[in-house]
């Protein structure tokens, strides 16, 4: 479990967030949270095979489809827990530094695998709520 200071440091140092499961539907939490983070100065990279773009950014079908020149600081996950192991495998394969699992997205085994590989893991927390609480 990360402490507040570690979460604050992660959010302070990040510039680009890939959001797995981001939709173009403004009524969905992934859209509202991502729009907020974008307004706070983060670049949001949508990862969803069902859309072409949202929030003014091109969407990618998977993390592996994001061009290598885009440096991802955090992978924010709005998917069901059963999708997390595959996402963690992509994070590890791409050597990305951090994965953030939104509220109710809990997968202990995948989180532990990521931690053991040196990835920063935040689980079952809303990135918007933590940003507001720690950085505003």
Element order: H for helix, E for strand: HEHEEEEHEHEH
Q: If strands are numbered along the chain, what order do they take across the biggest sheet? A: 2-1-5-6-7
Strand content: 15-25%
The CATH level-2 architecture is identified as 3-Layer(aba) Sandwich
Poorly predicted runs are none
Largest sheet: 5 strands, parallel
Determine the mean pLDDT: 97
Based on DSSP secondary structure assignment, what is the total number of beta strands? 7
CATH first level: Alpha Beta
Radius of gyration: 13 Å
Structural class: alpha/beta
Number of domains: 1
CATH topology: Rossmann fold
Oligomer: single chain
Q: What's the helix count? A: 5
The CATH superfamily appears as NAD(P)-binding Rossmann-like Domain
Distance between the termini: 22 Å
Shape from CA axes?
Answer: globular
Share of residues in helices = 25-40%
Give me some keywords for this one.
alpha/beta, 5 helices, 136 residues, five-stranded parallel beta sheet, Rossmann fold
Describe the structure.
The protein is an alpha/beta fold and 136 residues long. The chain has one domain: NAD(P)-binding Rossmann-like Domain (Rossmann fold). It contains 5 helices and 7 strands, in the order αβαββββαβαβα. The strands form 2 sheets. Strands 2-1-5-6-7 form a 5-stranded parallel sheet, sandwiched between helices. A two-stranded antiparallel ribbon has the order 3-4. Helix 1 packs across helix 5 and helix 3 packs parallel to helix 4. The two termini are 22 Å apart.
């Amino acid at each position: 479990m990360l402490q507040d200071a570690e979460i604050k440091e992660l959010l302070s140092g990040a510039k680009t967030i890939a959001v797995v499961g981001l939709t173009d539907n403004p009524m969905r939490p992934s859209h509202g949270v991502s729009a907020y983070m974008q307004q706070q100065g983060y670049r949001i990279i949508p990862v969803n095979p069902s859309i072409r773009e949202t929030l003014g950014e091109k969407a990618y079908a998977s993390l592996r489809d994001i061009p290598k020149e885009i440096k991802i600081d955090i992978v924010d996950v709005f998917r069901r827990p059963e999708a997390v192991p595959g996402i963690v495998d992509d994070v590890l394969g791409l050597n990305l530094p951090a994965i953030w699992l939104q509220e109710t997205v809990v997968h202990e085994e995948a989180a532990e695998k990521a931690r053991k590989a040196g990835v920063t893991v935040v689980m079952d927390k809303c990135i918007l709520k933590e940003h507001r609480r720690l950085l505003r």
